[in-house]
Design brief:
With about 300 residues, this protein is an alpha+beta fold. The chain has 7 helices and 12 strands. Strands 1, 2, 3, 4, 5, 6, 7 and 12 form an 8-stranded antiparallel β-sheet that branches. Strands 9-8-10-11 form a 4-stranded antiparallel β-sheet, covered by helices on one side. The radius of gyration is 22 Å and the shape is globular. The two termini are about 30 Å apart.
């Protein structure tokens, strides 16, 4: 059984940089991954995207791993000598990028660091992509656009427990939600889109909106905002009173232990049907995070 963890992988404008034209940012990330870039994150350790397999025109499966060179002794029985040699050691895991939703899924594998660490290495490779030899294979407009952007990765939290707390609470007295710059979906025209536009105009990174009421807040609009925050890798918090007898407590949507994930039968890179099943499982799970049944 493979377990894949979800991350928001997207391109945002660099500070003080305005794009004069717009490209499909998810598609641009897809094209970069398909070129299979690599980078030395530390001396002697190269992280590589490899074994890419297109599932459809919006998604790609790939292996991501590290290549290290280690010295070790080998025994020569003919001359009865230990001979020092250098071997390449490869440790990799499976990944899937869906450009339609801008979701990156990373398998948790015992041979590699945690998915949260791997996501940061993938972000590092993409942010340094323009310095490498593969950058020339992008189209000219893609090169110009990419230079004005930076890659950002955020864990996507599972909102189920947080939403259950909101739904069952006797009273909700506080609610705060944090948004980043523009995301691929405008979930909430009244709140999220103005906040994101405000960030663009002020060159800000994040924005937080909050509501308070000692009499209690309505839960349904807060649940909708929670879905929006989770789907974009953003955060939310609330102060809830579970029963009239209990004191209120603060709950948080995001934590290092709360990352949305799916379990699926072992996936093999060369089995197209298994890759399609993985992609469908990812998209179904992401719809539930967004709080939509179908599109």
């Amino acid at each position: 059984m493979d377990r894949f963890y979800f991350f928001r992988l997207k391109l945002v404008n660099k500070r003080d940089q305005k794009t004069l034209f717009e490209l499909d940012r998810g598609k641009l990330l897809l094209e970069i991954i398909k070129l299979r870039p690599s980078a030395y994150v530390r001396k002697g350790i190269e992280w590589i995207m490899a074994n890419t397999e297109e599932i459809d025109d919006k998604s790609v499966f790939f292996k991501f791993g590290r290549l290290t060179t280690k010295s070790r002794d080998k025994y020569d029985p003919t001359h009865r000598l230990f001979i020092e040699t250098e071997d390449d050691i490869v440790e990799s895991t499976k990944c899937l990028y869906d450009s339609f939703n801008q979701v990156l899924a990373i398998e948790k594998c015992s041979a590699t660091p945690l998915p949260t660490t791997l996501a940061k290495y993938i972000m590092y490779i993409i942010n340094n992509f323009s310095e490498g030899p593969l950058f020339q294979y992008l189209k000219k407009d893609e090169q110009n656009f990419f230079k004005l952007c930076r890659c950002q990765v955020d864990p996507i939290p599972n909102p189920i427990d947080f939403i259950e707390h909101l739904s069952s609470a006797f009273k909700i007295t506080e609610f705060d939600v944090t948004f980043f710059r523009k995301n691929p979906f405008d979930f909430n025209e009244m709140l999220e889109k103005p906040l994101q536009n405000f960030l663009e105009e002020t060159d800000g990174e994040t924005s937080t909106a909050g509501v308070r009421s000692e009499e209690g807040l309505k839960s349904q609009p807060l649940i909708e905002l929670t879905h929006a925050a989770a789907a974009t890798g953003s955060d939310a918090s609330a102060r809830v009173q579970k029963t009239p007898e209990l004191r209120s407590e603060k709950i948080q949507l995001k934590s290092k232990f709360n990352i949305a994930n799916i379990d699926i039968e072992e996936v093999h890179a060369k089995n197209k049907q298994e890759l399609i099943q993985l992609l469908n499982a990812l998209r179904d799970k992401y719809k539930s995070i967004r709080g939509v049944e179908d599109e």
